[in-house]
Amino acid sequence: MRISINRHADTPVYLQIKNQVRDMIFSDVLPEGMLLPPERSLAKDLEVNRSTVIRAYQELKADGLVGSQVGKGTVVLHQTVKKSSLAEGYINPLPWYQLFAETVTSSNDNIIGDIMAITGSDNVISFAGGIPAPSLYPIEIMREIQSELFETANRELFLHSPVEGHYPLRESISYLLRQRQIVAAPKDTVILSGSQQGLDFMARVFIRPGDTVIVEEPTFFGAIQIFRSAGARVIGAPIDKEGLRTDVLEALLVRHKPKFIYTLPTFQNPSGVTMSLERRYQLLNLAYQYQLPILEDDPYGELYYESTPIPPLKALDRHGYVIYLSTFSKSLFLGLRVGWVTAAPQVLAKFAQLKQMTDLHVNTPAQLLLDAFIRKGCYERHVAVLRQEYAARRDKMLRALEKYKVPGISWDKPEGGYYIWCKLPDNILRHKLVANASKRGVVFLPGEAFYPDGTQGDTHVRLNYTFASPEQIETGIKYLLQAVRETTITAGNHENERNLKPLV
């Protein structure tokens, strides 16, 4: 039995012996019933202590590879699985779904991926995704900045960055936050791979299985998925035209004792509602009273089309209860995957720890590119263009909804953000509407995706007006409302059929 010992290796000698004997057994060099050398003899041959060989043999016995037989010594045991049986027999497919954790098997987990796939399809007018207009991407400016960075930053573009993020970019974000009336030093921010990562980190830091999280109802479906995947019970608190109903919220806080409250107070997704200033102070006071953190998600705050919006909760918070999450995905483009969190030092330390374990740091070229884009004043000019263009697209969609209006449909005009939240006729069959709209090449997001229990919202749809071109918006709304008309008639509303305006 040939065994070689490397006395300079980190692997202990007894494990070197054990591993080599094991490999010889698996390769049939040592067949079943083969007698291994006595411990004293093998120790002498290998020039090691007998105790080292004894320990190696004990490890082999523990693995069921060898056994002791009285009068014989240590012998190789029968192995229940032979190589020949694998070649000759049928291999059962691996039961993947039995092995997955229960927290990642919920039915709506693919909704974001489905939206991304549909949005890229030809001959489809998509009102489904929360995606900025590709025609407005500042490509030329980005190309110029990138060329400059190759000259000035050189190899720094491809080096690692600190886990917390490229410090100059954190300085630039501090400047942007001041425009939102949030006072935060660069050290108060950690750069993330999009705000979606911030939601994931929030869940991993705060939620244990069985905990409760309070969200608005309706709310961003991605947050519902992430919180549930961490084992949380997600409870919805209703909103009205002033945002989260704090009177209902207080009762929920007493009953459920949640770990935190999740809110999109400005141009809420999907409703487009902005929480009033009074409600914001009421929410903060409840958080202080019950000692609850608030996760404020603010991806749309800069995209206002009327007057400057109400200050974020973070700007009003004087006691460090608000964890503020934002992103460049809605004001620039999704592909950069750069967002940030601004919070208390204790929270940032946990986020940085998770960042290090998850992906170490955000893409370095993206961070340098964004920092230069902001410092040159390009970001503020770009957002000003978006406000004008998106307001025009919103108004075009509103006019089309009015032009092709079907009885029983209603909506509110959002003052910013990406979405129009439409109430459909009460007797509509949602699954048939999806099919009828799809036949016409129009996709949207059904309302039930935005409710924690999935049983509400079946008479609502969320319509995005930023991604489709101005020419597509009217055509898409026309076809969508044709589908609503057809589905309503199919549902048996013959009275509506007589009263419908002709669609042209």
Brief account:
It comes from Sporomusa silvacetica DSM 10669. This protein is of the alpha/beta class and about 500 residues long. Helix content is about 45%, strand content about 15%.
Written description of the protein model:
The chain has 504 residues and is an alpha/beta fold. It folds into three domains: 13-83, Arc Repressor Mutant, subunit A (Orthogonal Bundle); 111-129 and 381-499, Aspartate Aminotransferase, domain 1; 134-376, Aspartate Aminotransferase, domain 2, CATH 3.40.640.10. It has 19 helices and 16 strands. It has helices at 13-26, 39-46, 50-62, 83-88, 96-99, 111-119, 139-152, 167-179, 195-206, 221-229, 246-256, 277-290, 313-316, 345-358, 364-375, 378-403, 430-439, 470-490, 494-499, and strands at residues 66-69, 73-76, 125-126, 189-192, 212-217, 233-240, 243-244, 260-263, 294-297, 322-327, 339-342, 410-411, 419-423, 442-443, 445-446, 460-464. The strands form four sheets. Strands 4-11-10-9-8-5-6-7 form an eight-stranded mixed sheet, with helices on both faces. Helix 7 packs across helix 15, helix 8 (167-179) crosses helix 15 and helix 9 (195-206) packs across helix 14. Mean pLDDT is 89; it is low at 82-86 and 491-504.
Based on CA inertia axes, which overall geometry fits?
elongated
> Which second-level CATH architecture of the largest domain applies?
3-Layer(aba) Sandwich
* Beta strands, count: 16
Low-confidence stretches: 82-86, 491-504
What is the share of helical residues?
40-55%
Query: What is the average per-residue confidence, as pLDDT, rounded to a whole number?
Result: 89
Helix count from the secondary structure assignment: 19
Alpha-beta content class? alpha/beta
Provide the β-strand percentage band: 5-15%
CATH topology of the largest domain: Aspartate Aminotransferase, domain 2
